[in-house]
Amino acid sequence: MEINTDQIREKYAELLPRYQNLAINLNQALELFLHNAGISYLSIDKRVKDLDSFIEKTRRKEYTNPFDQIEDICGIRIICYYTSDLEKINDIIKKELNIIESADKEHLLKPDQFGYRSYHFIVKIKGDWLNAPNYRGLQDLKAEIQVRTVLMHAWAEIQHKLAYKRKNDVPDQFQRQFARIAAKLEETDEQFENLRVDIEEYRKQLITNADKANGVFDLTLPLNLDNLEAFLNYYFPGQKKATRNWTRHLLEELVKRGITIRQLVESYQKIKALLPQIEEEDFEGEKLGKSMYQQGMARLILDLTVDSYFERHNSTTLSKQTELKPLPHVEIARKWRKIIKEE
Questions:
Q1: Is 151 domain-assigned?
Q2: Does residue 290 register a pLDDT over 70?
Q3: Is the domain of 151 the same as that of 235?
Q4: Could you give the residue ranges of the DSSP H alpha helices within the chain?
Q5: How far apart are CA 51 and CA 57, in angstroms?
Q6: pTM of structure
Q7: How many domains would you assign to the chain?
């Protein structure tokens, strides 16, 4: 079929800024939706189909009205970590956008087939979005959103690299290899999901076990990231929570000085009765939770009770690579160390 490329080029140039605007704003909106839902993800990428690809697809599909028939001029791809996040993300897309079409590419496969695994949506923005200036003029434009796990994405990218998009594209001698790899990736996705569930259950159980033991954290636990985080959540539930990376820095400090979970718990028990007085006298009656993160509270109790830990404030050889800045309230710690020793 012959197409009028000059007309296509002209209309493409006219619509391009609007599609670019749609891609930018839709990408930002999805980032916000996932952040508010507490869903971690590897990436959210956007792209606008270039003119050559648009013309090639028009010819290949023999479209007569390509600007209406080609629905992926604007494309968004969300890559998440776990299969359980797929449904959560899909629900957000269905709630926040107008769905023109949707497809679960995995469920379209027959039991003996392998292939392209991901969720696809063709969407338009909702009418109330047009109240925001950055969405005006975008109401009639379609966008494609793909949602995949990391392993689904790996499969799709390698398959694309090998230029095999359909089962019939693959020579017979390679079909079995492809099927085996696809099955292994699917199984691995399931195993990662099971591992995530097991880890979450393990972390919850640490708190449950402490409650059952009359409010005493298990002193025999080895010091690792999960156990340290559970300790912080158990003894300082009212304090602000920082990222696991901050907890990892604290873990490195403790490992370096040979401090154990037992020492952490015993340090807390020694000074817990003093915390209200410290709050009243040196934090102007403010709850420590309003001014310090959980990791800061752990550092405070160690500064007050463990000499070798407090001495880090006097060291001039601290590695900037592995240590956070010293406790900002060093003078407070010094004052209360003196009070504790006198008592």
A1: yes
A2: no
A3: no
A4: 5-36, 51-61, 66-69, 83-96, 150-161, 172-212, 225-235, 244-256, 261-271, 275-282, 288-291, 294-305, 307-310, 330-342
A5: 10
A6: 0.73
A7: 2
